[in-house]
Each structure stands twice: as C-alpha cells, then as structure tokens.
Design a protein that fits this description.
The chain contains 14 helices and 17 strands.
Length: 423
C-alpha cells in the first residue's frame, strides 16, 4: 500500500487505540486518533491504581511512542458522540474505516432496586472513586471529591474490588503512621505490604486501631477470578486453579489487611437519615458451579459502600445496545449492524479489564482491518485509494479540530497537559 492512500479513524487513544494506530501507521495508513481527554492514557491513568508507578510510566511511554509516530494524527479533547457524531465521522469525514477503542467507562449498576438514589449518599461506584484516588493529589484536580473511610464495605469480587479494599487499608495506614511522625509512601507500602512496614517500626496492625475494609462476594473464595480458569478445564486443572486463587487471596489479605466474606449477594440497602448506611445481603450457596440465592439475610452496616461489580461500555449515540453491551454482529472484531466500515477493539469488546488483553485484542483487530479489510476492500469492493484532494480535505478538517482544541504537536501537548503534582 502506498503511503497515506488510505485513512482510518480510531476512537480512544489508550492501550487498545494506540496499539491499533501502531499497526495502521506501519502500513502507511493515515491514522487519526480521537481522544475525549487531554491525555490519551485511559484506564492506565484513571483505573490502574497509582501505586503501580513503574507500570504506569512504562505504559505511558508505550502509548506516547505509538501516537507520536509518522502517519498518526492525535486529536485530543474530542469526544465522539459529543463533539462529533459517530454517524457523521463514519459517513462524512472521508475515512475508509473507523475503529472503536473507547473502553468500558460506566459501572455496572448495583442490582438493588432504587440504589441509584443513594449514589453519593453513602454509596459510591468504583470508577469515579478510583479516578478521584488517582488524581486527588494533583493541584488542578477539580473532579468529584470523596474520602477514604475506615470500615468501608465493597460489593464485588474481581481484582478491581481488591484494589478498592487496598485503597482503604493502605491510605489509613499511611495516615496513622504520619500521626506518629513516621514517613512512608504508598508505593513502598504496597510493595512491602502493611505488616512488614509496621514491624520495621515496632508496630502491629492492632496498634493502629484501624477496622479496615471488607469485600462481600456472592460466590466462594476459590471462585474469585484472580487466576484464569481455561475454558473446558478438567477437574484436576480446575482444582489447581482454585487452590492457586485461594493462595493468592490469602497472601493479598495478609499483606493488605482486608477481609473477604464469600457467599453474600446484595439484596437491598439500609437507609437511615437520608443516607445509605449499609447493605442487606442474602446468603448464597454454590453447588456444581451454580449459585443459589437463599432467603436468609444478613444486615451489614457500614459508613461507606463501594460497588465494584464491573465496568461496561458507555452508550454511544448511534450504537445499538443489547442490555448493557454494544450489540455486535461479530464479537471477534467488533462489527456493528449498519456500520460496514466499523470495527472495535480492546476493553469495549473483550469486557476484560486487563492491559495485556486489550493490547492483544487490538493487535488482532488491527491486523484484521489492515490485512483483511483494506485488502479485501481493494480486491472485492474495489475500494479506491484516497486521491490527493480527498487527503488534503481530510487533513484540513483534522487540523481545524486540532487548532480548535489548541493542539499543535504531540510532545509539547503531552508536556503541557501533565497535571501539576502528577505522579
Ligand atoms: C481499579 C482498576 C484496576 C486495574 N488494575 C489493572 C491491573 O492491575 N492490570 C491490568 O492489566 N489492568 C488493570 N486494569 C484495567 C486496565 O487498565 C484496562 O482494562 C485497560 O487499560 C483498558 O485499555 P483500553 O484501551 O481497552 O481501554 P481504556 O483504557 O478505557 O481506553 C479507552 C480510551 O477511549 C477514550 N474514550 C472513551 N470514549 C470516548 C469517546 N466517545 N470519544 C473519544 N475518546 C473516548 C477514553 O478516554 C480512553 O482514553 C484496572 C482497571 C481498574 C479500573
């Protein structure tokens, strides 16, 4: 393919979007990455907790390298669906293909009737909470403000719910150490674990007087997805994975001092004085991999309830939904009905909150689009290469949008958009 005879738009510039951009750019395709935020790092910056200092820095560098190369045009502060309609982008801008890489930014709603009314009043969701936690030290942070509260309970069971539990115990430990004039930092505490750091100062967990945090999970401890169970695994493998999960959980609980209560499913919220003050759980049982919710209930009072039961894609105008997911016609490469030139990659399709999975999927979709779609299009549907005028017109539109948001080059933009006090 000759350079920039073909064009593609990518929606979302994070792990998946940058990976797909890298593949298209290496084929000489004019690649335009639209990103709603100023910075393109997505959940690496706004999800992965900030104690992962090294991993975050590494992922930023990877994304930067992929988005700053030849043939890639970055368009920040531009949300598709808000600033530019999806249909308009697909049909009017002159792109031969569009790839959604917009991740999963909404929280799955807590399956408890009427719970919406208590959000912000004793009930919080994981995604805004971690966003606040990751950015709260920045001088310019102007988003919603929350608190770290001792005795918080978390409804969940995945890896992200463990992060919520860790936020509480790590932060409170730092606070109590600081009160004693002992300096530690989040990264050190996370790497060494709470008991080790306390022992080094002749302290015990009990000395700190922290109640901690507790995760309520509807299945058994060995069902927590801390290790992947391969599909169709035999009994021996399943037993090995279950043992591995239990061991990992036990290690994490003792290192970070949180608790997990299995076999509890949320049934209703406890409301007192116009505030959510706890959860009524129904006890559950698991037999032969099947979950049964019993009639037996348990009241758990807590100063804060965090719901951490998964992330789902944010609805995008023009994209059909099936339940809480996009209604793909092909889940492998994320095609949608009525959008023959559109594909999707990363968390928005896989539903897996994992950097490696997003990257792997984006690589596969990127190769499919560049090898199969563009080639197929030329062979079968005779997709014409862009003429110089079409290319000029597209570039002009892109430059106009970049100018409107004040963007004039990747490196200077990233430097200028770094929040003060950013870690
Ligand atoms: C609490 C927590 C802990 C985690 N811990 C880990 C971990 O330890 N290890 C791990 O591997 N993964 C972890 N993850 C998950 C991981 O960070 C994500 O799964 C992964 O980064 C997703 O990459 P993505 O590119 O598919 O999506 P995202 O990172 O979500 O990127 C989507 C991009 O699209 C942009 N966008 C969205 N909508 C629009 C729009 N309409 N127009 C333009 N742009 C748009 C977003 O701003 C974003 O930049 C964690 C996540 C959370 C929440």
């Amino acid at each position: 393919m000759d350079a920039e005879q073909h064009s593609i738009a990518i929606i979302g510039g994070a792990t998946a979007g940058a990976e797909a951009a890298d593949i298209f750019a290496s084929q000489g395709i004019l690649t335009v990455v639209f990103e709603q935020n100023a910075r393109p790092y997505g959940k690496v910056e706004d999800g992965l907790p900030r104690w992962h200092v090294g991993l975050r820095a590494k992922e930023y560098r990877t994304i930067d390298r992929k988005l700053s190369q030849e043939h890639v045009h970055f368009v920040p502060r531009t949300a598709i669906g808000r600033d530019i309609g999806l249909r308009e982008l697909v049909e009017d801008w002159g792109f031969q293909s569009v790839v959604l890489a917009n991740g999963a930014w909404n929280d799955r709603p807590l399956p408890v009737e009427g719970s919406d009314a208590w959000v912000g009043k004793g009930l919080l969701y994981q995604n805004p909470y971690i966003l606040w936690f990751n950015h709260r030290h920045e001088a310019g942070y102007d988003g919603p403000k929350y608190e770290v509260v001792d005795g918080t309970i978390i409804v969940g069971g995945g890896l992200a719910s463990i992060d919520m539990a860790k936020i509480v115990t790590l932060e409170l430990t730092l606070e109590r150490l600081a009160e004693r004039g002992i300096e530690s930092d989040l990264e050190e505490l996370e790497i060494k674990g709470i008991p080790k750091v306390l022992t080094a100062h002749d302290l015990t967990w009990e000395d700190l007087g922290i109640e901690g945090s507790t995760i309520y999970y509807r299945r058994r401890l060995e069902d927590m997805p801390l290790m992947t169970l391969p599909p169709g695994a035999d009994e021996k493998t399943a037993a090995k994975v279950e043992k591995g999960r239990r061991n990992m959980l036990a290690k994490s609980m003792s290192k970070y001092m949180f608790q997990v209560v299995p076999l509890h499913s949320p049934r209703s919220l406890i409301i007192d004085d116009d505030r959510c003050v706890g959860v009524v759980f129904a006890r559950t049982s698991m037999e032969g991999g099947r979950l049964t919710v019993t009639d037996e209930t348990v009241e758990v009072r807590a100063p804060l309830v965090i719901s951490s039961i998964g992330s789902i894609p944010r609805p995008l105008e023009g994209v059909p939904m099936k339940g809480e997911l996009y209604d793909y016609t092909d889940w492998d490469v994320g095609t949608l009905p009525d959008y023959p030139t559109l594909f999707s990659c990363g968390n928005v399709v896989t539903g897996k909150g994992n950097i490696v999975e997003s990257r792997k999927h984006a690589k596969r979709v990127g190769r499919h689009v560049s090898d199969e779609y563009f080639r197929l299009a030329q062979d079968v549907r005779d997709l014409e290469p862009m003429g110089p005028e079409e290319r000029e017109a597209l570039l002009k539109r892109i430059q106009e949008r970049q100018a409107r948001v004040g963007y004039s080059g990747y490196a200077s933009w990233i430097e200028a958009s770094k929040p003060p006090g950013f870690v």
